């Protein structure tokens, strides 16, 4: 049997991290003159330092992990029973009901508070949140809880669905499809594309991994490559239309400029900061650990620790370039060269350990949270070209609630039994 690491190498964190910067870098060549996109030597060196650090630390972590852990110690015994046979129909239907109720209550909330035009309501809500993050609490607590369960449950039901497709088990198939579709719609409903796209990326990772597992092959089949590419092309081609549907008014940009802002402007923003900004800030003003510091400030009654996420919107002439500058922007803001090395190393180490557990997980007869977690994490890795999603999305209370939801849902699906 081929080594799992070599079979899954294109799903590895180091591959995803390096590859994610390629499209934006290539696309940026069209804007060398329009944005005066001539990166300074310091920016280039910091950028390369971050990428090289991630790759080296990833391989070192992989080596240490393999040499210090017992072979197969994390593998869960496969008893040969497909996981879908262990899930009672009513449980998937119950999760489907939660997805539906969550979606309906979210729509009702938006229409009641922001107008009957749903697209405009989504835009108004998102604008309110962007202007005052505390407004997010206006979403009723019960709705927020249901949305958290619905979004978290989407990843588990997605795993059950794809497991059934790959292993040709049709049990609960229709309910699982509906559940996943509603979870994706739920992810888009408050105006952000991230939650929905993250679930779609997780679907690609899970599907490819399951296909490799069942075939024991080093390569993905041509049919599967076509399926994955088709999904990516559809996502890319509908990106602008999806933004318009969610109330994002970007009509002042043509299609090329719109995509450039999302793919390539991060490089220009990083360069502007490196050449004109102040590098190195006190720990309590950290952008990298913004959520952690602010949470600790509230818990420990230290109001001076609570600070805003101070990345300004950048412009070049009349061109709006947004306010993101790749994953490295906050690392440099916090600690300069040392910040890039330290924060990138921590990220690479954690991602590699999760990846190793993903490789060893039972993908057939158990709901493997290690498997699901890495599919969740891969989106965060490949969007490093955009912003610091790793520390923003993993080091916060929302992710803690996601993990708690996964544990509860797994227990519900596998342990709860109702005797008739």
Give the helices and strands, then pairings:
Layout (H helix, E strand, L loop, with lengths): L3 H4 L5 H7 L1 H8 L12 H28 L20 H26 L3 H14 L9 H26 L6 H16 L5 H22 L6 H16 L1 H7 L9 H9 L1 H12 L13 H10 L14 E3 L2 E4 L5 H33 L8 H14 L6 H6 L2 H18 L6
Antiparallel strand pairs: 1-2
| Regions with little confidence, pLDDT below 50 for 5+ residues | 72-77
Estimate the global geometry from the Cα principal axes.
Answer: globular
Range of helix content = 55-70%
On the 0 to 100 scale, the average pLDDT is 86
Largest sheet: 2 strands, antiparallel
What is the first-to-last residue Cα distance?
45 Å
* DSSP strand count: 2
Order of helices and strands: HHHHHHHHHHHHHHEEHHHH
Note the beta-strand portion. Answer: under 5%
Number of domains: 2
**Helix/strand class:** mainly alpha
Our count of helices gives: 18
Enumerate the strands of the largest sheet in spatial order, edge to edge or round the barrel: 1-2
Structure description:
Strands 1-2 form a two-stranded antiparallel sheet. A hairpin with a 2-residue loop joins strand 1 (314-316) and strand 2 (319-322). It has helices spanning 4-7, 13-19, 21-28, 41-68, 89-114, 118-131, 141-166, 173-188, 194-215, 222-237, 239-245, 255-263, 265-276, 290-299, 328-360, 369-382, 389-394, 397-414, and strands spanning 314-316, 319-322. The longest helix has 33 residues, at 328-360. It has 420 residues and is mainly α. The termini are far apart. The model is unreliable at 72-77 (pLDDT under 50). The chain has 2 domains: 1-73 and 255-363 and 384-396, no CATH class; 85-249, no CATH class.
């Amino acid at each position: 049997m081929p080594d799992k690491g070599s079979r899954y190498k294109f799903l590895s964190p180091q591959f995803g991290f390096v590859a994610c910067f390629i499209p934006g870098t290539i696309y940026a060549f069209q804007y060398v003159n329009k944005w005066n996109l001539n990166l300074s030597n310091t920016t280039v060196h910091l950028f390369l330092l971050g990428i090289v650090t991630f790759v080296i630390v990833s391989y070192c972590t992989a080596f240490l992990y393999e040499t210090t852990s017992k072979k197969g110690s994390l593998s869960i015994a496969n008893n040969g029973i497909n996981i879908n046979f262990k899930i009672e129909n009513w449980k998937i239907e119950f999760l489907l009901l939660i997805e539906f109720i969550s979606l309906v209550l979210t729509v009702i909330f938006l229409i009641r508070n922001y107008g009957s035009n749903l697209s405009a309501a989504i835009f108004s809500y998102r604008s309110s949140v962007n202007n005052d993050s505390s407004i997010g609490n206006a979403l009723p607590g019960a709705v927020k809880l249901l949305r958290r369960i619905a979004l978290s449950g989407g990843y588990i039901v997605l795993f059950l669905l794809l497991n059934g497709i790959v292993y040709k088990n049709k049990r609960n198939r229709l309910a699982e499809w509906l559940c996943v579709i509603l979870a994706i719609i739920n992810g888009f409903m408050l105006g952000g594309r991230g939650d929905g796209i993250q679930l779609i990326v997780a679907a690609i990772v899970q599907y490819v991994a399951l296909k490799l597992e069942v075939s024991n092959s080093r390569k993905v089949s041509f049919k599967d490559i076509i399926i994955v590419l088709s999904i990516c092309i559809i996502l890319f081609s509908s990106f602008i239309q999806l933004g318009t549907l969610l109330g994002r008014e970007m009509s002042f940009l043509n299609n090329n400029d719109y995509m450039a802002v999302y793919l390539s402007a991060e490089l220009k923003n990083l360069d502007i900061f490196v050449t004109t900004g102040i590098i190195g800030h006190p720990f309590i003003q950290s952008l990298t650990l913004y959520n952690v510091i602010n949470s600790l400030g509230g818990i420990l009654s230290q109001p001076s620790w609570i600070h805003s996420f101070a990345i300004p919107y950048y412009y070049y002439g009349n061109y709006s370039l947004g306010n993101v500058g790749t994953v490295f922007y906050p690392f440099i803001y916090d600690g300069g060269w040392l910040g890039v090395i330290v924060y990138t190393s921590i990220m690479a180490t954690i991602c590699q350990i999760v990846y190793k557990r993903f490789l060893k997980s039972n993908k057939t007869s158990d709901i493997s949270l290690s498997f699901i977690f890495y599919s969740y994490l891969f989106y965060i890795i490949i969007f490093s070209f955009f912003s610091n999603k790793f520390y923003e999305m993993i080091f916060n209370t929302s992710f803690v609630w996601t993990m708690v939801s996964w544990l509860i849902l797994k227990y519900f699906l596998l342990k709860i039994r109702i005797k008739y």
